[in-house]
User: What shape does this take?
Amino acid sequence: MNLKPLQAVLYLCGILSLLLLAGCERPEPEVTIVVTPASIPPAMLTVQAERGEPLDELLLVDDLPLDLPPDYVGTPTPDPPRALPTYEPGSLLHTVSAGETLGYIAHMYQTSLDDLQEANGLANQDLLFVGQQLVIPREGPPAYVSPDFKVIPDSELVYGPAAKGFDVRQVANLYGGYLLEYGETVEGEWLAGPEIVSLVAHRFSVNPRLLLAVLEHRSGWVTRPAGVETPYPLGVSQANLQGLYRQLSWTADRLNFGFYGRSEGGVTSFTIGDGQRFAFNTTINDGTAGVQVMLGAHAGASYQQWLQDVGPNGLFATYSRLFGNPFAYTVDPLWPDNLQQPDLVLPWASDEAWYMTSGPHGGWAAGSSWAALDFAPPGEQLGCVQSDYWVTAMADGIVTRSDFGAVVVELSGDGYAGTGWAITYMHVERRNRVPVGTEVRTGDRLGHPSCEGGFSTGTHLHIARTYNGRWVAADGPLPFVMSGWVSEGTGREYNGRLIRDGVVREACQCREEINRIGH
Assistant: This one.
């Protein structure tokens, strides 16, 4: 971003006065200190030579007497020591989701492609179908332990309190890179580069600041204005992952898998691109685990390159160059010890009964916590059909998103879904969909169930909870409780039940008494 000299000086004076820094004279030689807009955290300061040419290098200012607010002051996330895992023979099952490949699933569960094919008798690794169940073989202990360098705090992986006020487009405008020129069609709608980053961040509940840092680290798209065009800006060279949206979605899902897999899914090791397996170092935090998994998941990731990427001169250095030290944004803990779900009601009219079609599964895609439940409205028709039934608010709140099939209602009252409790209602048709900014009361209409947003083979509603931006598992210590119905998982994705007063309803791809849920 090029500021005219007078504008730059006036802008600087205004911001510096807020920070109680005296004076606004231009230093010698002619260098203008450019402070980012107030909505971007104050750790992001740059120095620009005022010569009228495009900004081509950003230098971190680390010696100004900034008085950072408490939310942005922190240290690496502390973690209790963890014993190295023990391994027992056995296997588990995975249900194939849309867009998954056998190689992707092999990386997800830290097993080899050959072993996965052999365990399932697959002659052709490209022939998978949605809903197919695969046996995941368990292997012996890994030969190596991952590095102990902490790359990010946990609060910098999730779209939580530390990202409040962060605006992707403002940052893109500041740096003037190729991201501003890029655009593609996502689910029938043309989106520019910054808006693609924002959409992925919202859908996966992954911090957009981290996504921008990874994009810059892999391709330079944030700061370099030209010469970086590629269908694979995140370096994932798979034909089905062309374009920024799919590349970022893959990246966000890998980050989530490392984070939630280690923190609550029992994942203790992972494989990098060259086939070497690592146990998570016992001293790293879960946010760093997510980064280690994501950076190692590229098919071409070599051991030496991965060590560089996860060390102090890798992604951490790129992040610091763009936004300052990531641990300046630490919010710890993300969840208080006494966290309790607020009162929620079923998301449809009190005189209706809907049908539970899926138990606990990914809040968004397979890598996230199993935070979601699915429900189909009454009716006889199957597939993607228009429904006139209404999705209703489960609690009072403010609508913070209403696009691409999603309605997000935050319950804290501050208008930001990353602080406190928020509910995501997915596959809500754009017809009659409630607009952003609407204050809703329990039972208010939000829209109609549909197939819009992401991938769906039949009209239904997908609901999930987050607290401080972190997905809350429907099969974990804080089950989904709605109108007295309590969610419970079976250990297999999409399987599960709701229980109330001894009555049990099982998830089923049907409309029967066994999955009928009423108020």
In short: The longest helix spans residues 244-264. The first strand starts at residue 31 and ends at 35.
